[in-house]
Amino acid sequence: MNKIGQDINLASKYIINGDIVVFPTETVYGIGADATNKEAVDKIFKAKKRPVDNPIIVHICDLEMLNKVAVNIGEIEKKLIHKFWPGPLSIIFKSKDCISLNVTAGLGSVAVRMPNNTIALELIKVSNKPIAAPSANISSRPSGTCIEDIYEELEPTVSYFIDGGNSEVGIESTVVRVIDGVVNILRPGKISIEDILKVTDKVIMDDKCLNKVNDNEQVLSPGMKHRHYAPSTKCIAICSSEHNNIVNKINELINYSNDNISVMVTSDNVDKIIKRSNVNIIDLGNSLDEVSTKIFSSLRKVDKLNSDICYIQGFELSELGTGIMNRIIRACNHEVIYV
Ligand code: TXA
Ligand code: MG
Hints:
Layout: E1 4-5, H1 8-16, E2 21-23, E3 30-34, H2 38-48, E4 58-59, H3 63-69, E5 70-71, H4 75-84, E6 89-95, H5 101-104, E7 109-113, H6 118-127, E8 131-132, H7 147-154, E9 160-162, E10 174-179, E11 182-187, H8 193-196, E12 203-205, E13 234-239, H9 243-254, E14 261-265, H10 267-270, E15 279-283, H11 288-304, E16 309-313, H12 320-331, E17 336-338
Parallel strand pairs: 1-9, 2-9, 4-7, 6-10, 11-12, 13-16, 13-17, 14-15, 14-16
Antiparallel strand pairs: 2-3, 3-8, 4-8, 5-6, 6-7, 10-11
Bound molecules: threonylcarbamoyladenylate (TXA) and magnesium ion (MG).
């Protein structure tokens, strides 16, 4: 395990040299490379088995660097930057030519964020490079929020892993693009629509954040089309505005089944689920913040338990709940039972 450590100078040498490094951010871990070096960025696509039409977020450490990677920074974007950076918000701008075409997937736009994590900021600063970094996981799998999970999945292809402990937020950044003066949310996250409404009243949540995208349908963000966050185990979300209905439905599904079942529910529901030897209960915690930090590691656990099926409690579509549901619905490949 000598590839894991906390040596930022060593990690930055790899970045400058055109190699790839796993590093912590406040949302999830990133697998990063110099965003101006095409060959280096290609290594990320290979390591993750990422579809080449899916562009990568560029991480910066200060506003000077923003001006090197993006043009046409409008007034609304400036307000968002002022309120939310450093933090879990990625903003899409027109890209400058120094950013590799494989980072932007040739779209001419670039998603940028300034992470709120001292290791990430230091790595970018010492490397003096904008760092392109998707989440540190094989494409379509749950994102990596602890170094052990990521090491297991990506060890052979990555030069160095910076261990920064468990990710604080646990789900990826909110992605937005300002179009005709309106903030379009393309991926919900910790910065919620309610938070953005404090900056501007012109905000919309793209309907594809929570709904299935049909083949040939146009999307504002290529990531909306791809399979995401999914363990190998089949997952089904159980949703209701009535808390008790969710527990009752899960118990009904467990009853009479000999399958190896995983159940993911909040702490207050753990004791209400029928206890059986073929049922593993995964406690998602007490608050939306806690669920957010636990959701990806819990999805990985389901595979380790060799479950045949996993039932996941649904959450209300407000504040952080919307971002959590975006991940759950995709992990379930849109299989949802409403009760
Ligand atoms: O929190 C995060 O955002 C993490 C950490 C590592 O910073 N990164 C992350 O990257 O989640 P990734 O690649 O897993 O997700 C990036 C999402 C994708 O859905 C991609 O399609 C979208 O952002 N995206 C990136 N650049 C874009 C662009 N120019 N236009 C539209 N969508 C873009
Ligand atoms: Mg990802």
